[in-house]
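Quick start: read one record
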Amino acid sequence: MRTKRISKDEYYLNIANEVANRSTCFRRSIGAIIIRDDQIISTGYVGAPRKTKDSFEHGFCLRDKLNIPHGQRYELCRSVHAEQNTIINAARAGVNILGGDIYIFGSVSGKEEPINAFPCFICKKMIINAGLNRIICSTSDGKMKIFRVNDWIKDWQEGDILDDKSQYG
């Protein structure tokens, strides 16, 4: 009989981990969910735009083929990031995400090796503009890191986007 109940943050991050299993990226499996008022209101994973071929169907990663390092030149990737898909899926369903939290779980594709699933700059900007409050991410040590959008905004007001310390890649 289990005596310790997992926290809500662990619970939702575990669900984001399950969503990540739908990812179609050779490099990373990443899943995201948005929670508002303690309800899952949207999910998303790394994958090609609807009705287009993903990397698995092509049989290769375009960025690997072009020798592009992790964290660079996202515009050349076939996939839409999990965070982006989660925001897009909420919009398609007409669901309000303002004031919600986003949980992001990431691992090396094909392995159960967690990564620091911190959003890239493009996703950070989308998360800020979407009006989300907290970002809860898996980390390479199997734990989690929690960011607050207001802290990102404050940091970028005082410094520059290039001074950002917690970035993917």
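The chain is about 30% helix and 20% strand.
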